[in-house]
Design brief:
- By secondary structure, this protein is an alpha+beta fold.
- Helix 1 runs antiparallel to helix 3.
């Protein structure tokens, strides 16, 4: 299994609209992608403008294939409307 961890810095005043957009649209979009096991989004306690997106993938091949899926561009567009920066890491689990 592969765990993708993204930290998303959201523009001031856009935190709640971003959270709603992810709950209403983003999580479902990602969850529908072949090879995705689970999707979770959390909001920072000490820094409420920071969100963490955790995506469990079956393997790296599924994640690489996602980049060719139209959902990849759609999700980047959704997040991009709210984001002022991000970082991402991948971890092999198990």
């Amino acid at each position: 299994m592969l765990l993708e961890r993204s930290e998303l810095l959201i523009k001031e005043g856009q935190e709640e609209p971003f959270h709603v957009a992810m709950q209403d649209t983003g999580i479902g979009m990602l969850a529908s992608v072949p090879g995705v096991i689970s999707v979770n989004v959390g909001r920072g306690v000490e820094n409420p403008s920071k969100f963490m997106l955790l995506v469990e993938w079956e393997n790296m091949d599924a994640h690489v294939a996602y980049r060719q899926n139209p959902v990849c561009g759609q999700l980047r567009e959704l997040i991009g409307r709210f984001s002022k920066g991000a970082s991402m890491e991948h971890f092999r689990m198990g």
